[in-house]
Amino acid sequence: MTRSGERRAGWLLVAPLCLLLLAVFVAPVALMLPTSFRTYQPGLGITSGWTAHNYTQIVTDGYLLEVLGRTFVLGVSVTAICLVLGFPLAVVLARASGAARGILTLLVVFPLTLNVVVRSFGWISLLSNRGLINQALMALGIVDVPLRMMFNLTGLIVGLTHVLLPVMVVLLAAALRALPRDVEAAAATLGTRPWKTFFLVTLPLAAPGIFAGCVLVFVLTISALVTPRLLGGPAYKVMATAIFDEFLSSLDWPTGAALAFALTLFALAVVALAGLLTRRWVAAR
Amino acid sequence: MADLILRGLTKRYGGQAAVADVDLVVASGEFVSLLGPSGCGKSTLLRMLAGLVEASAGTILLAGQDITRLPAHRRGLGLVFQSYALFPHLTVADNVAFGLRRQGVRGAELRRRTEEALALVRLDHLAARMPRQLSGGQQQRVALARAVAPRPRVLLLDEPLSNLDALLRDEMQIEIKRLQRELGTTSVFVTHDQAEALSMSDRVCVLDHGRVQQVGTPEEVYQRPANGFVAGFIGRSNRLRGRVEAVDVAGVSVVLDGGAVLRSGRTEIAPGRLVGIVIRNDAVRLLCGASQGSGLPGKIVMRSFSGAQVQLVVRLESGTELVSDAPATTAEGALGIGTEVQVAIAPEAVFVTEAAA
Amino acid sequence: MTDEPPSLALRLIAALLFAFLLLPVAVVVLAAFSDTAYLTIPPQGLTLRWFAKVFHDPDYLAAIVLSLKLAAVATLLATVLAVPACYALHHRWVPAGETIANLLMSPLIFPAVVIGVALLQYVSLLGIRGSFATLVLAHAMIVTPYLIRTGLAGFAGMDPALEEAARVLGANRFMAFFLVVAPVIRSSLGAGLVFALITSFDEVPVTVFLLPPGQATLPVTIFTAIDQGVDPSVAAVSTLMIAATAILLVAVERFAGMRRLF
Asked: Does pLDDT of B1 surpass 50?
């Protein structure tokens, strides 16, 4: 085929998928933008007339600020915990080879593929006031009243850590596996002790990969809907569940839309900033 | 079987020409090698013939038909790859039958021709195996059978022996040549190994930087290289630096670094210019004792014996060292270290090219 | 990273973490077999009656059928669209291939709930709220990134000479793809397909906004059931999902190897 023939064929092959994305992804999101600048009046529906109130209230309204802050704290906590817990697991996975590697990967990936609803259900059975953990603690006499682990930040952190830990592990393991093989051995022959090797050699080399893992986990955490809804209940909201309720319960689509764009812009900004930082990092080496 | 004619065939990538204005005629039934160093464009040229790369300019005529713009699957050619490219999910027999099936051959006829092709390469007993169960040499033979089974008008081979070890390579060279003779298929063979090209081909086409340097029989290309590149690429050579001293009707005198003077054939280079000089090792003759002639005096300083050949290093009085190859059975081959000799080189064997400063 | 086997301490920590990861799963499975309405350890009696309840419940059965139908059709559609696109991208038939690939995978970093609400408004405006077709298109869009990623990886891992050999032997690009390319990359494609199916089946944040009234997919049914108070049949149907997922994953590992995805 000629060069121009190839190009024509190429566009023909790529076009249907692009059209799908345009129709079902780009267009709906673009159409929601004007809605975020309108007002909703109960009983009357969405009025005509533009306002920026929906956006400004995110930073002026006490309740929304609380939701925003809670979402951010959730994101940072889950990311940090996943990083600390995920690292040992990632090291084991990165060093495994052959059959062990297959089995370990399977064990890590399996929770990833499980439905979030099912996983949250499991945690409810564990964390609720009549759940397994409280039953055990009370039976052992460690507490007299059940520990409140649901409908609060604790429950959300536990549930989301469980969901995102495999993601962190997989990304960290990939970053560690990509390290040049003999760097640590070389450091050892030069007399460096294992812990020092870890901090001075392994960590800096794996830093970009670790950073990427953290960014993804953070973005996924602040976007999560199902786990916060099930473990936090209808009253204890984060951004995603707030959007859910505005659209389905209060029917205040304009507010919901504004919240949605705020969340999206924040997530995209984090990803973009991370990309910029990583590129500068790598270039500086 | 068909004539293959290439006219002005060119391939440009960006501003660079990987293949530049190649003219070549391959007669029906002929075995021609495209020979050159890595990056000289020989593989690109072959892939243009196959239809895998689009030509920027020029034409390809096959039996009188212009196939330049014809897609690869309609050219009716055969191609043997360096990596064999056997279909891993098909048996040996199904691999060989692939081209036949595309031609619409079915049933008993298909079975017969598949067996025929496998018998040609003496692998009919492995028809039910999978490619991964075969050795490298066997895989290459299956690739060969697969390429010739549909009776292509031209057989193209892209460095098919480069992945094989030396012993296997020698065997396969004979195998391929025998097959080609038996079938009488016009063949174009790409290689960077000049010994391979010389031993297998009816004619050799030497390429460098996308351009044809010389086309001729192996004897012609070896004994009468058209320019310095061909002289240096084929056989083993001495490469020296010097300056043109004087020009006359018969040729030029070139003075080497160190002072020795050589005579060369006619050239366009003006006196005083710096030149690179290429002299084939087997053009450096050493005269000793009774057969004294006029030559450059020197002494043998190193000798290495490699079976059929002996390599002698001679240091001239001027300090320049020249390497000479001679058959072990001749008087020259028997000379030992320390012998005083006269070095004689025919002017036609001294190739002079202008050098960058 | 060294090849040294990890220390005992490291392996112990890893074991504990694996236990943490599998804890809620174990709890759900136990609850499904437990005779009481809420879970105790040790469970007071084992029974299969919750599973029987699931198989006799018309809502659960309808949800399973809807989820399966949706996953199958959406994945099929996405595959038919994505594989040719990957082919064109891999052969560099379009300029800025990497940018296009990234754009096609962009739904991955978008908060799913935002896509969900945007689609809700969209289909309401168009008057097609609650149609199966909308669900299919939305799911196809969601699983596309996974298919693009595994598709491109699959093509990249194949020896290009194979396709060329098929073409020179007389197969046009179409035949060459079906006869040679697809069989050679079938493990990558298969793994991507399975992942797409699982992703579609499990999808909640977008699906919940697009369902027709009175109908629900399985995960959404469980979602609303939990909201309204649990009975162990929820655990039973969840156990069925866990089992199905496990079987699929083992199949992918055996036929393709998990390493292809990570």
From this structure: no
The mean per-residue pLDDT over the stretch B285-311 comes to 81
Angstroms from A60 CA to nearest CA on chain C: 22
Chain C residues whose CB is inside 8 A of the B72 CB are 164, 167-168
How large is the ipTM?
A: 0.86
Across A23-32, B97-106, B338-347, C43-52, least confident range:
C43-52
User: Does A10 fall in a domain?
Assistant: no
- Domains in chain B, ordered, with CATH? 4-229 (3.40.50.300), 240-354 (2.40.50.140)
Residue intervals of chain C classified under CATH 1.10.3720.10 are 54-260
Quote the percentage of chain C above a pLDDT of 70: 92
Chain B residues within 8 A of A3 when measuring between CB atoms: 54
What number does CATH give the domain C54-260? 1.10.3720.10
DSSP A84: H
pLDDT digits over C100-137, tens only?
A: 998 898 888 899 999 999 999 999 888 887 889 999 99
User: Residue B56: what are its φ and ψ, rounded to 5°?
Assistant: -80, -35
Residues contacting residue A45 through CB under 8 Å, at least 6 positions apart:
none
C-alpha span between A149 and A242 (Å, rounded): 21
**What pLDDT is recorded for position B49?**
95
pLDDT in tens, A251-282: 888 889 999 999 999 999 998 888 888 888 77
Which residue type sits at A267? Answer: A
Helix intervals (H) in chain B: 42-50, 92-102, 107-120, 136-148, 166-183, 194-200, 218-223, 228-233, 331-334
End-to-end C-alpha distance for chain A, whole angstroms = 43
Q: What's CA B288's distance to the chain center, in Å?
A: 35
Calpha distance A61→A69 (Å, rounded): 12
A131 or A9, greater pLDDT: A9
Number of domains comprising chain A? 1
Predicted pLDDT of residue C42: 65
Q: Does A17 touch chain C (CB under 8 A)?
A: yes
Give residue-wise pLDDT tens across range C13-29: 888 888 898 899 988 88
The per-residue pLDDT for A128 is: 84
For residue C58, is the peptide bond before it cis, meaning its omega torsion is within 30 degrees of 0? no
| Cβ <8 Å between A102 and C238 | no
pLDDT at B217 over 60: yes
- B146 in reach of chain C (CB within 8 A): yes
Residue C212 contacts A where some CB pair is shorter than 8 Å: no
Residues of C in contact with A116 (CB under 8 A): 202, 204, 219
Q: Look up residue C31 and give its two tokens.
A: 């609850």
Residue C179 has pLDDT above 90, yes or no: yes
**CA B6 vs CA B153, B335, C135: distances in Å:** 15, 49, 58
Chain B residues touching residue A4 (CB < 8 angstroms) = none
Across the interface, whether the CB atoms of A2 and B69 are under 8 A apart is answered yes
Is residue A249 included in any domain, yes or no? yes
**Do B345 and B285 contact (CB within 8 A), yes or no?**
yes
Residue A249 domain boundaries: 57-284
Nearest to residue C186, comparing CAs of C240, C127, C256? C256
Non-local CB neighbours of A236 within 8 Å, separated by 6+ positions: A151, A152, A156, A228
pLDDT at A160: 94
Q: Which of B75, B81, B88 sits opposite C184 (nearest CB)?
A: B88
B13 Cβ under 8 Å from any chain A Cβ: no
